[in-house]
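Proteins fold reproducibly. Look at a concrete instance:
___
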Amino acid sequence: MLKNEFTIKRISRFTSTTFVQQYHYSPVVPAITKYHLGFYLGNKLVGVVTLGYGTRPRHTLNKIFPVLKNNTSTEVSEFYIEIGKMCFSPELNGDRNSGSKIISLLIQWMRTNTRCLFLYTLSDGIMGKCGYVYQSSNFLYGGKYWTDVYMMENGEKLHPRSCKELCKENLEWEQNRNNNFVKNDLSRFTHDWMLEKGITHYKGYMFRYIYPLHKRSLNFLINYSSMEWTKNYPKDNELKWRNIGTKTNVLSAPFPEHSSIDVIYNLKNVEQHKTPLNLLNKFIPKGI
């Protein structure tokens, strides 16, 4: 059991991203990241949490609270912020409660430093994660939904949002082999092209969690959310995957091994923190 107490402070994007890429299963840090927070034991960085938003923060807010849909003056930042990445160094494996201790400290920090009513997060069921650390921290569970991922031939996973350039290659390939190919644009890979390239398309679950930061937050959630928020938490038996490439939709488990070592398709996003502008953040945390 670890005897020392964790401390928290804002850190640079460079420091945060470097840590995440060393210890997290996904090396890509979300683009809309507002806070990079480091958790320390003494002077040693042992955990990182990034806070920000997904690609459509307003859509997420409206999904949870349809009553706000037509209220264009509402600032998303006044309602929620989302955990983008959370990871810890292996030395914390000896303390089963380290995750909930860090989240408790994170919640205290948010109450002091933000105007948010809620801390929101998604657990990657598609990567085999049920969100046990959120369950042990008394988050409320808001259900699950299917999401997509491509498994590339090198074992690298690629989100459909990141496949724009490859979709252009796919489109050209289809047009060259079939003059009657009617589409002029693709947002998803075609089945035959995936077979040609050794790509597999999977669907899996994402699990929603939310933490009301104040008493008024809980009241607002109860009265105005369109979702049912409970503590009927998902367990490992709810992890399911579909191999879309087989065209059978048969559930398969476990999710195949993946690699983030030889990055090819996510390289631009993975290297973003090393650009000249972001390298300044190696020394100066944003907002400090």
Summary: The chain has nine helices and ten strands. The chain has one domain: 7-282. Residues 7-282 form a domain with the Aminopeptidase fold (CATH 3.40.630.30).
